[in-house]
Amino acid sequence: MAINDKALALEALIEESLHPLAQLRQFLNSLSSHHYQEVLGERKMHTLGKHVRHIIDHYDALLDKDISSFPASLNYENRKRDVALEQSPPLAVEHLRWIECGLQALKQGSASSHLSLTYPDDPTTLTLDSSLERELAFLTSHTIHHMALIGLLAESLGLRVPETFGVHPCTLRHWQRESLETSARSA
């Protein structure tokens, strides 16, 4: 079903972003600082905290901009990279709540739909037309991708994650349709 009304589309995209963020926040509430900071991988480059901080950085790149006027310029390359968010699950949880509030505020409709995305491609910098809706769709997919990595890393530490952790909403909808079809065939 296509959503033609911009306000409804924006609201649906915001809700789709809020779900994994709430799931991530809930996971972090049960996580020790030790596990959050533990260095993993053969090259010793990964921590759960680095992936969480990376997710937060991308939402901050959008929400720290004044997107109430056109053209708002967005650049994911020049992120804050606040190392404190990699070290402290409670600080990350607090920041995720701030992001969730910021996303909720976007529903009020004062944000411009039109965005300009700056994409450094050395030696040339590209300026690409985008939209708030497009960037929200990107951020949801980006978040889910990193949550899947977080899930794998957590499992390597012996931690349990929910079955739907790091699973994109479209995959969840697909699973639900398959389940309904299987139930209908069984009936």
From TrEMBL:
GO MF assignments: metal ion binding
Pfam families given in the database record: DinB
Recorded superkingdom: Bacteria
Keyword Metal-binding set for record: yes
Keywords: Metal-binding
InterPro entries named among the record's database cross-references: DinB, DinB/YfiT-like
Family assignment from sequence similarity: Belongs to the DinB family.
Protein name (record): DinB family protein
UniProt organism field: Vreelandella rituensis
